[in-house]
Amino acid sequence: MKKLLLMSAFALSTAVVTAQVIEADNYDTYTLGDVGTNFAFGAPGQGGMFLNGGSAPDYQIVNIDAAHDKSFQVTTGAGAVVADNRQAVKLGFGAAWSARTAGNDVLKATFEVYTGSSTGNVYAGTNVTNATAGIVGLRYNSATKMFVGMANLTSNATQATGFYNITGISAATFPANTWVTVGFTYDKVNGVITYTIDGVKSTLAINGYTITKNLDGSQFNVISQVSTSPANTASLVSAIDNYSVEAVNAATLGVTVVGQIADHSADVTIYPNPATDIINLKSTSKIISASIIDLSGKVVTSSKVTNNQVDVRNLSKGNYILKVETETGTVTKKFLKK
What we know:
Layout: E1 12-13, E2 20-25, E3 33-34, E4 50-52, E5 59-63, E6 70-75, E7 86-89, H1 93-98, E8 106-114, E9 122-129, E10 134-141, E11 146-155, E12 161-167, E13 179-187, E14 192-197, E15 200-205, E16 209-211, E17 219-226, E18 237-248, E19 252-253, E20 255-258, E21 260-261, E22 268-271, E23 278-283, E24 287-294, E25 299-304, E26 309-311, E27 318-326, E28 329-337
Parallel strand pairs: 15-20
Antiparallel strand pairs: 1-19, 2-18, 3-5, 4-7, 5-6, 6-18, 7-17, 8-13, 8-18, 9-10, 9-17, 10-11, 11-12, 11-16, 12-21, 13-14, 14-15, 22-23, 23-26, 24-25, 24-27, 27-28
């Protein structure tokens, strides 16, 4: 029987919580070894997991220690390009969330992260996304040995939304080969995100931004993604275990922490610049959408990205800001339309 760890409650409960499990796994029923054989969201592997990136040895069911029985181990590539990223997804999350009990509008996730080799500059953890946007997540940064949040935020100035990496949510560091119990909540009605790291809970606040409301998740992602700024140069071996995602009817609030939006400007490259008709995008993470903002802060256009290209033919000549949302964060780039 797997031993489950309980989070301490450095928090103030606002209501009685009735939990409804959306997705959960502890991997104990899996077979040791390879999870699957297809790595482009093709045929599912063990447990119905769809894998993206890498090869069979990069996704393993392993025995790390007796307390955890079997766990899901993920190994990234040793570089800083898209092919070095890893992702695992199951189907059915969106349907289960849509069928949740009325009033259970808070998404609550808990899971354990094994810091493993703690090499390179890689982010390992989980997030919740839908077809067009990332919503919330939490990842371990192997370079800083700290956890980084993920949050969908709305700019107070422009009302533009984006999925951002959030630093400053905890000062604690965690060395190699350490299990850490963490979690996050997203209240879609009230626009509240909390993070829990090793029993310490905080409520997110970002100057100049509010948390985007009314987003519904369609998939829970186990991710291990490389950084390009600074560029990753080593493979990371980490693991996930004992995860549970629930729909509940009240968030448990903690101490308010003012986080910082991480600078990931090097993660996206645009060309040509200046541009006349098409801007090409290159990114280490999947590109979800792009917005063009003029220098007054007005959103000129916003759309999904097709073939990693943005059409600027209808823009007037001048300077603009291109805001690109990826699975790992949001990046802004200045460009000139000729």
